[in-house]
Every structure is written in structure tokens, then in C-alpha cells.
Amino acid sequence: MAEAPIIAIVDDDDGVRASLASLVRSLGYHARTYCSGGDFLAHGPGDEPDCMIADVQMPVMTGDRLQEVLVSSGRRFPIIFMTAFPTEDVRRRVMANGAHCFLTKPSDGATIIRCIEDALGRPGDPRP
Length: 128
Prior knowledge:
By secondary structure, this protein is an alpha/beta fold. The chain has one domain (6-46, 56-119): Rossmann fold, CATH 3.40.50. 38% of the residues lie in helices and 19% in strands. Helix 4 (88-96) links the parallel strand 4 and strand 5. Keywords: Phosphoprotein.
């Protein structure tokens, strides 16, 4: 049996990390949480996640900067960005660098689930 996908959650807000981890686990996936981009990078490559959900606005290293570091070091996996402060400039930049989704906080669970499932290449809910 295949191991459940690993979803990395990078957000400086404890509550957001906890609620996203709960959502991810409810789908049967493993959740790994990180309080910053630096925290994620400190774990280094090797056991890469199958997908990442990252906040854009974080102190020290923004989510889009984390993406730049990952891409420049050849670490590529789907990234779903979430932000309470969306700008067209940031959306355009992260999407051009390969982001999978760009969501505004708060986002409803169904939208987040749809982005995760799509990022993992899994069929969505067949119900209308």
C-alpha cells in the first residue's frame, strides 16, 4: 500500500497551522507544520513533501521568497499560497514561478481541498 501524501504547512500563525493540519489529516494525508520558511528550509531536502501550503506574509522570509529559494535549489513540488493581503503583483510572480494555487484568506475548506487534490493529481469529488 502506498504511503499517504505528505503536505507541508508553512505559516507563522499557530491557529492557521493547526486548522490546516487538521483539514489535511481529515483527508487521510500526513501534515508537517513549520512556523516559517526558515524552519522548513532547516529540515533540508531529502524527504520532500508531496505538496506545500504556504502563507505569503510571514516575517523574515515571505512565502514568495521561500518559493524562490526552493526553485533556485531545484526543489520542486506543488505550492498552494494563501494570503490575507493579496496583490496582483505577488499572485503573478508566484504563479509564474510555478505555484499551483493562490488563495485569499480566509478560504473555505472545499476550495483548499480542491487545490490539494488537484496538486496531488487526484480526482476531485465527482458529485455536482
